[in-house]
Design a protein that fits this description.
Layout lengths: L1 H68 L7 H20 L3 E6 L20 E17 L11 E7 L2 E11 L2 E7 L4 E7 L3 E3 L4 E2 L3 E2 L4 H5 L4 E6 L6 E9 L4 E18 L3 E13 L3
Antiparallel strand pairs: 1-12, 2-7, 2-10, 2-11, 3-4, 3-10, 4-5, 5-6, 7-8, 8-9, 11-12, 12-13
Helix pairs in contact: 1-2
């Protein structure tokens, strides 16, 4: 009977020891998994930050290169390319210390569309500037060959909480650009432009011909925003500058568009391969 009791106790002790061993092993494995996941997540976050930061730095470099190369009417492509080549070399050297291979491929200059990112398939309806107090410069140049002449025409609007307070709609009229200005409801003025060059704040069309855009009349004393509608229906350039309600000055301008391809390889494991449209000279607000 005593041997039977001893055997039972041994079995109980062994079972308890095995149970404790399983608990300890489980805790150890969980700690290992948690540490591994934490390290992995930290590594991913670090690389995501590194990639996003590299994109922004690259955009800044293109803007600086464009500023240095722009002569007022054209781009000195040699000056522009030399700046980008120098930048690429420095980025390659600096990222190499972290085991990252950086490659930048240049695209060709082209005229942007009035979409959010400047591409023909970009977001067509978008707000360019919000909470404006006053606009002292609003200039546009529209390419008539890309315009449509249907019910979904390209337009630019000033709007507040009540709705559209001013708009200018554009459509192709033969080889000209028709400009129709409204207060959101009533047509205030309409005329064809032979060049598509519009100085909205100075009330000029085709360089020197007077055309009342009624922009100051409809927006004066109001807090408003400016948006583009059906921006995929036209290409061209614009410059908008003024002051926001908070007192800060703003300026956004687009003359050219270039697509840059950035490739980054981190220790042969993580990779970024992205084509980014860059609006120049400074289209990113």
């Amino acid at each position: 009977m005593k041997r039977s009791d001893d055997s039972a106790q041994m079995i109980l002790i062994a079972s308890f020891a095995i149970g404790m061993a399983i608990v300890v092993l489980t805790l150890v494995l969980n700690n290992i998994i948690f540490a591994s996941n934490t390290a992995s997540e930290s590594n991913v976050e670090t690389n995501v930050f590194e990639y996003s930061n590299s994109i922004q730095v690259t955009i800044n470099a293109y803007e600086k290169a464009y500023s240095n190369a722009y002569t007022g009417s054209s781009i000195n492509k040699t000056t522009f390319n030399n700046y980008i080549d120098t930048y690429t070399g420095k980025m390659t050297e600096s990222l190499a210390f972290s085991g990252t291979v950086y490659t930048l491929e240049n695209g060709n200059f082209k005229k942007p569309y009035f979409t959010c990112n400047g591409l023909s398939d970009g977001k067509a309806n978008w707000t360019a500037i919000e909470r404006i107090n006053s606009t002292n410069k609003f200039i546009m140049a529209i390419n008539s060959t890309t315009l449509t002449n249907n019910s979904n025409n390209f337009s630019v609007e000033a709007f507040d909480q009540a709705g559209t307070i001013w708009s200018a709609e554009f459509f192709r009229s033969g080889t000209n650009v028709n400009v129709t200005v409204t207060d959101g409801v009533t047509v205030l003025n309409s005329q064809d432009s032979s060049s598509g060059e519009l100085n909205i704040t100075s009330n000029l069309i085709d360089g020197s011909s007077f055309f009342d855009f009624h922009f100051d009349d409809e927006t004066g004393g109001k807090t408003y925003s400016i948006r583009f509608i059906n921006g995929n229906k036209a290409s061209g350039t614009f410059l908008i500058a003024g002051d926001k309600v908070n007192g800060n000055a703003f300026e956004t301008e687009r003359i050219d568009l270039i697509e840059a391809k950035i490739m980054m390889n981190k220790n042969g494991k993580l990779r970024m391969d992205v084509m980014i449209p860059i609006i120049l000279p400074k289209g990113q607000l």
